[in-house]
Design brief:
The protein is mainly β and 681 residues long. The chain contains six helices and 38 strands. It has a 22-stranded antiparallel β-barrel. Strands 3-9-10-7-8 form a five-stranded mixed sheet. Strands 4-5-6 form a three-stranded antiparallel sheet.
Length: 681
C-alpha cells in the first residue's frame, strides 16, 4: 500500500513538469470552511484537519448515494453497503452517532440500528465540509469523531451572470439498477428577497448488480426530495432565512438493510419500507456595519422522521418516529487586548424524542424515550504575531436521557470539553497547525435502551430462533483526549504561471475512555435471556478503553488543461485490553487525473486502492483489498443553442470489480454507466 502511495505522488509530481498548461488556466477557488470555528474562514487559518468538497467536484461524480458523493474524502468511510437507506458515516473509526451531522446548519441526530441518516438528494448539495477529530469544544456531544456539514444550493450558486431569475433542469440515468434521476430547480433574486424551490428523485427499474453480475436483492429504493428556501434582507447587515425540506423513500428491504435479503416468503424478514422526513431551519444573521463586537447568528431547527416497516411474511407492522428540535445562538467578536482576538461564543440546546410501535403496541426494540442536551461554548483565537495564532476554547454540556419504561434507568451527566491549539504561517504558502482537545459523546437512546430481536438464525420445526438485543442503561459517556499535528501548503504559479498546488497532511492520536462498542455474540457465547430458549445469543453495547491513531493526506494540482489529486487514509486502532475494534476502516488511496482538451471538455479517471483489513474482532469478517477504477467526462457548450447546458458521462467500477467496503457484508455495485444532462436558462 505504501509503495502505491509513494508511486502516485511521484507520478503526479513528474506530470507537473512535463504537461503544458493552457494559456488561460482554470484557477481553484479559495477553500472556505464555516464549520470548524462556527465562522467562515480560509481553511489555511484553521487549526484542524478538514476537507471541503463542492461545486464541480461534486457534480462530476453524478452521485446517487452519499458514498458516491464523499466516500473518497481522507479519513472518511461510508458504511452500510450499496443501499442508500443503510449508509452511515465513519471518520477514523468513529461511526455514525460518534460524528455530528449538520444539514443546512441544523443537527440531524436520528439513529436506529442498521439505518442511515442521509435524507437528501445529492443533486441539491452545493458543499460538504468534513472536520476530522474531536470537535466537542464547539459542537458538544457526538463530535468525538468529527463533524460533517452538508450545505444545499443557494440562489447565488445558480444564477448565471446578469440573471435575477432562472431555472435548472437535470436528467440522469444509471444502467445498473436502471436508475432515473430527474430534478428541477427554480430560483430568483428580487433585491431584498430571494427564493429557491427544488424537487428531485431517484427511481429504480431493477435491482443493482454486483461485480459478479449477481443481483443485490431488495436494493430498489425509490426516493423523492423537495426543498424550499426563502431569504429576506431588510437591511444590508441582516438576513432572515427559512429552509423547508421534505424527503420520502419506499422500497422492499430487509430490516437490517446492510445485509443480504432473504426472499423466502416463509422465513424472510423483508419489509415494505416507507419513510417521510421533514426538516425546517429558521435563521437570523445580523452583522452591523462597522461593529467588531456583533456578528450574530440565531438558528431554530427541527426534524421529524417517520418510518413504517411492514413485514411481508406475516404483516407485522413496525412504526418508528424520531423528532428533534434545537436552538442555538452564536456570536463572533473581534477586539484587542494587546494582541488581536477573534472570539466565537454561544449557547445550544436540543431535544430528541423517539417512539416505536409494533402492531400498535409499544416496541421494545425502539422504546419511548427522550434526550435533552444544553451547552454553552467559547473559543478564542489570539493573534500573537502576524504569523502565529493560539487558540483556546471550552464547552460545558449537560444531558439527560429519560426512558418511558420502569424496568430501565434514566441517565444524566455533564462534561467539560476544552481545546488548545496553534496555527503558524512561516510564510504565505505554508501553515503548520496542531491541537489537543477533550471530546465526549453521551450514549444515544438506541444504545442505552435497544431491546428485542436483532436478527433471525432461521426456523426449526416452525419455531424461529433469534439473536436479541440486551439494553444497557449503565453505559458511560465516551471521553477522549485527542492530539493532532498537521501542515498545509497552497501556492499559485507553482511550476508555471497560472497553475496551483494544494496539499495537506496530518497525524492524529485519540485516547478514548468508555468507547461504546457494539458486540454481537455467537450462540453459546455471552449473556443469555433467561426463560427464552429460542434466543440463542445476544447483542449489546459495552464500554471499553481504546486508542485510535493514523495519518491522512490530500493533494490537488491544477494546471489549467489538466488536473490531478491524491487522497490518503491510513487508520489504525485497537482496544486497550488487546481486542480488535470492528470499526477501523481499510487503508485507502484515491488518485484522480483529468484532462481538459478545450475549455468546454473534461475527461478523466479516478482509481481507488484499498488495503486488507485483517485486524478484526473474533466474530468479524476480514476486509479484502480491492482496486476500483472510474471514468468521467463532461461537455459544457459555451455558445450556440446548448449554451449553459452540461452533458456528463461516466463509468463507475469500469472493470466490474467484486468488492466490499469493510466492515460491510454486502458487495458494492458492479459496473455502472451513468449519463446526465443539465440545462440552465
Amino acid at each position: 500500500m505504501q509503495r502505491c502511495i509513494l508511486g502516485g505522488v511521484a507520478i503526479l509530481a513528474a506530470g507537473a513538469t512535463t504537461v503544458q498548461a493552457q494559456d488561460v488556466p482554470v484557477e481553484l477557488p479559495p477553500l472556505i470552511l464555516g464549520t470548524a470555528l462556527r465562522a467562515d474562514r480560509d481553511i489555511r487559518d484553521t487549526p484542524v484537519a478538514a476537507s471541503v468538497v463542492s461545486g464541480e467536484t461534486l457534480e462530476r461524480r453524478q452521485a446517487d448515494t452519499i458514498e458516491e458523493l464523499i466516500g473518497d474524502v481522507p479519513g472518511v468511510s461510508i458504511e452500510g453497503g450499496p443501499r442508500s437507506v443503510a449508509q452511515e458515516i465513519n471518520i477514523r473509526g468513529f461511526q455514525d452517532e460518534q460524528v455530528v451531522l449538520r444539514f443546512d446548519g441544523g443537527r440531524f441526530n436520528f439513529n436506529r440500528a442498521h439505518s442511515g441518516r442521509f435524507f437528501f438528494d445529492p443533486d441539491i448539495v452545493q458543499k460538504v465540509e468534513v472536520v476530522r477529530g474531536g470537535g466537542s469544544t464547539l459542537f458538544g456531544s457526538g463530535a468525538i469523531g468529527g463533524v460533517v456539514a452538508v450545505e444545499t444550493k443557494d440562489v447565488e450558486d445558480l444564477l448565471l451572470p446578469g440573471q435575477t431569475t432562472g431555472a435548472r433542469l437535470r436528467f440522469g440515468y444509471s444502467d445498473n439498477g436502471q436508475v432515473w434521476s430527474p430534478s428541477a430547480t427554480v430560483y430568483g433574486d428580487y433585491g431584498s428577497f430571494d427564493a429557491l424551490a427544488f424537487i428531485g428523485g431517484r427511481e429504480f427499474g431493477t435491482s443493482l448488480e454486483d461485480g459478479n453480475g449477481d443481483e443485490i436483492l431488495r436494493s430498489e429504493v425509490d426516493s423523492l426530495n423537495g426543498l424550499i428556501k426563502l431569504g429576506f434582507e431588510p437591511t444590508e447587515d441582516q438576513r432572515f432565512e427559512l429552509n423547508l425540506s421534505y424527503y420520502e423513500d419506499d422500497g422492499l428491504v430487509p430490516p437490517n438493510a446492510n445485509t443480504e435479503a432473504d426472499p423466502d416468503p416463509r422465513t424472510g424478514n423483508d419489509s415494505e419500507r416507507s419513510a417521510e422526513i421533514f426538516t425546517y431551519r429558521m435563521s437570523w444573521d445580523w452583522n452591523p456595519e462597522g461593529s467588531d463586537l456583533v456578528d450574530l447568528s440565531v438558528l431554530l431547527y427541527g426534524n421529524t422522521l417517520e418510518i413504517q416497516d411492514d413485514r411481508i411474511r406475516d404483516g407485522r407492522a413496525d412504526f418508528t418516529e424520531y423528532d428533534t428540535i434545537g436552538f442555538e445562538v452564536t456570536n463572533r467578536s473581534r477586539f484587542d487586548v494587546g494582541v488581536p482576538v477573534d472570539l466565537v461564543y454561544g449557547v445550544e440546546a436540543f431535544r430528541d424524542e423517539q417512539s416505536g410501535t409494533r402492531n400498535g403496541a409499544a416496541r421494545v426494540q425502539f422504546p419511548d424515550a427522550e434526550a435533552t442536551t444544553l451547552g454553552v461554548f467559547a473559543e478564542a483565537t489570539f493573534g500573537v504575531t502576524d504569523r502565529l495564532d493560539l487558540i483556546a476554547g471550552v464547552r460545558f454540556d449537560q444531558y439527560d436521557r429519560d426512558v418511558d419504561d420502569p424496568t430501565l434507568e434514566d441517565a444524566d451527566d455533564d462534561f467539560l470539553s476544552p481545546r488548545i491549539g496553534f496555527s503558524f504561517r512561516p510564510n504565505d504558502d505554508w501553515q503548520i497547525f496542531g491541537n489537543i482537545a477533550r471530546a465526549f459523546r453521551a450514549p444515544t437512546l438506541t444504545e442505552l435502551y435497544n431491546d428485542g430481536v436483532h436478527f433471525s438464525y432461521g426456523f426449526r420445526n416452525g419455531v424461529e430462533f433469534t439473536n436479541n438485543f440486551l439494553p444497557n442503561p449503565d453505559l458511560e459517556a465516551e471521553e477522549s483526549t485527542q492530539v493532532e499535528l498537521g501542515a498545509r501548503f497552497d501556492r499559485a504559479n507553482m511550476f508555471r504561471p497560472g497553475d496551483s498546488l494544494r496539499l495537506s497532511a496530518n497525524a492524529y492520536y485519540a485516547d478514548v475512555e468508555n468507547f461504546i462498542d457494539a458486540i454481537v455474540f455467537e450462540p453459546g457465547q455471552g449473556p443469555r435471556v433467561p426463560g427464552s430458549p429460542t434466543v440463542l445469543a445476544t447483542s449489546t453495547q459495552r464500554n471499553i478503553d481504546a486508542e485510535l491513531y493514523g495519518f491522512e493526506a490530500e493533494l490537488d494540482y491544477d494546471a489549467g488543461n489538466w488536473f490531478g489529486g491524491l487522497a490518503l487514509t491510513l487508520p489504525e486502532g485497537e482496544a486497550k485490553n488487546g481486542e480488535e475494534l470492528g470499526s477501523i476502516p481499510q487503508a485507502r488511496l484515491t488518485a484522480t487525473l483529468g484532462y481538459r482538451p478545450t475549455s468546454e471538455w473534461t475527461v478523466g479517471a479516478r482509481a481507488t486502492f484499498a488495503g486488507d483489513q485483517n485486524d478484526v474482532p473474533e466474530t468479524g469478517r476480514p476486509g479484502e483489498a480491492f482496486t476500483v477504477v472510474d471514468l468521467f467526462g463532461s461537455w459544457a457548450p459555451e455558445r450556440g443553442p446548448l449554451q449553459n447546458a452540461v452533458f456528463r458521462a461516466g463509468i463507475d467500477n469500469v472493470f466490474d470489480e467484486q468488492y466490499v467496503i469493510y466492515p460491510n457484508e454486502l458487495p458494492q455495485a458492479g459496473r455502472s454507466i451513468k449519463l446526465s444532462a443539465s440545462f440552465q436558462f
